[in-house]
Write a structure and sequence with these properties.
One of its GO terms (molecular function) is serine C-palmitoyltransferase activity. InterPro entries: Aminotrans_II_pyridoxalP_BS, Aminotransferase_I/II_large, AON_synthase_class-II, PyrdxlP-dep_Trfase, PyrdxlP-dep_Trfase_major, PyrdxlP-dep_Trfase_small. Its EC number is 2.3.1.50. The protein has two domains: about 150 residues, Aspartate Aminotransferase, domain 1 (Alpha-Beta Complex); about 240 residues, Aspartate Aminotransferase, domain 2. It is an alpha/beta fold and about 425 residues long. It contains 16 helices and 14 strands. It has a seven-stranded mixed sheet, with helices on both faces. A four-stranded mixed sheet has the order 1-2-3-12. A three-stranded antiparallel sheet has the order 11-14-13, covered by helices on one side. The protein binds pyridoxal-5'-phosphate. The site of pyridoxal-5'-phosphate has 15 residues, from helix 5.
Length: about 425
């Protein structure tokens, strides 16, 4: 098969979606105010962004980014290993480590490159990685690059993870065994039962725990310190990874740990750190300014939680199946992929920007519209979105009452673990 033949069926499918007017991705946003955006001549309410605290347009944050440009310029000039390491990176590392309750941290240029570089360099073919099936693609890429044995377990299923862990420990007595989970799952908004996972360490003290808290940082826990703090298990999580591309209004990522030796090893062996350019100063300064705002204005997080609660209640009133959680990611469950594309297109035509998540981001036939809310959404935004979703949900028959019983995933689930993290 030629390269052209390999690509043609896919390109054809995309072209058809565009011709039918239901292709939803890569929409060129021409202006953004945070909760409102322009796409060409359309003005829309954004309910798909990960800018959870609405800090991308905060004047203090923008000012900090601009100021750093005068001292450091626009680009880093190289990888951190060579000439791109700035004092500002190290200031941020100290600040992040303290923020998440760890001793040291290493900043990378994206969150994806943290997972790829860190997991890839820490583990090898003697080791076993237990992963939640719904972990982010970057985690799986890191696992693949490490060549360790990957053992997925069903989403948030502590029992299944525990069984697989017992087996792994028995079969690989000399290898490292690590459990990797997200704190807040990017598509479902579910919270991992971290306290239950951490409890596994009592029986298996050599188990390592790696938390990807991309969506929990700035959102969960006291002061937005993340899901480990929310669940009260910071000291039991060996690695806390986070990104700056969500609540921290920038791009970039970090990994934090209490172990100096492991940090030093990662710093010199993470390929994505060594062989990729450093995070530009303006991004670093943005994150530092966001951390200042978080400290000064904890009410932002409270406002986000209030909005989240209000929207969840609103979705329930409409009759949508909404899982128990307290995160600002609230998927609207649709089912068939085609229907999700049509639904997203009609949202768009009605002034609401939210995108479908389809396989492989979610299981086949279980497409959702991923809505996510921001602390800068105003009441008028929420009212308008709820009214629009209500109308379209009736039209497209996606309310619980309209769904066949066999679509179990659509049932509202009493996901106690999501609320309590399994904490006793
Ligand atoms: C759970 C999770 N981990 C890692 C990443 C990668 O982060 P970044 O966008 O900073 O590369 C994402 C991004 O979507 C994510 O959702």
């Amino acid at each position: 098969m030629t390269l052209k033949e390999r690509c043609y069926p896919f390109a054809h499918m995309i072209r058809t979606g565009k011709e039918e007017g239901i292709y939803p991705y890569f929409r060129p946003v021409t202006r953004t105010w945070g909760p409102e955006v322009d796409v060409g001549d359309r003005h829309l309410i954004m309910v798909g962004s990960n800018d959870y605290l609405g800090l991308t347009h905060d004047p203090r944050v923008r000012e900090a980014a601009i100021r750093s440009l005068s001292s450091y310029g626009t680009g880093p000039g190289g990888s951190r290993f060579l000439c791109g390491n700035m004092a500002l990176h190290e200031v941020l590392e100290d600040r992040l480590a303290a923020f998440v309750g760890k001793k040291r941290a290493i900043v990378h240029t994206t969150g994806f490159s943290v997972n790829l570089g860190a997991i890839g360099c820490l583990l090898n073919s003697d080791d076993v990685i237990l992963c939640d099936r719904e972990d982010h693609y970057s985690i799986f890429e890191g696992c693949r690059s490490s060549r360790a044995k990957i053992v997925p377990f069903p989403h948030n299923d502590v029992e299944a993870a525990s069984r697989k862990l017992a087996h792994a420990v028995q079969k690989h007595p000399d290898g490292v065994v690590i459990l990797i989970t997200e704190g807040v799952f990017s598509m479902s908004g579910d919270v991992a039962p971290l306290a239950d996972f951490a409890r596994l360490k009592k029986k298996y003290p050599n188990l390592w725990m790696y938390l990807d808290d991309a969506h929990g940082l700035g959102v969960m826990g006291p002061g937005g310190k993340g899901t480990a703090a929310h669940c009260g298990v910071t000291s039991q999580i060996d690695f806390i990874m986070g990104t700056f591309s969500k609540a921290l209004a920038s791009i970039g990522g970090f990994i934090a740990s209490d172990d100096d030796d492991i940090i030093e090893y990662m710093k010199h062996n993470s390929k994505t750190l060594i062989f990729s350019a450093a995070l530009p100063a303006s991004n670093v300064a943005t994150v530092l300014a966001c951390l200042d705002v978080l400290e000064e204005e904890p009410e932002r997080i409270q406002r986000l939680r209030d909005i989240t609660r209000q929207v969840r209640e609103g979705y329930r009133r409409i009759g949508l199946a909404v899982r128990e959680s307290e995160t600002p990611i609230i998927p609207i469950r649709i089912g068939p992929e085609e229907k999700a594309y049509v639904f997203a297109q009609e949202l768009f035509e009605n002034g609401v920007f939210a995108l479908p998540a389809v396989f492989p981001a979610v299981p086949k036939g279980q497409a959702v519209i991923r809505t996510a809310y921001m602390s800068t959404h105003e009441q008028r935004h929420i009212d308008y979105v709820l009214e629009t979703v209500d109308r379209l949900a009736r039209k497209h028959r996606i309310r619980s009452v309209d769904l066949p019983e066999s679509e179990a995933f659509l049932e509202p689930c009493d996901f106690a673990a999501a609320k309590s993290c399994g904490a006793q």
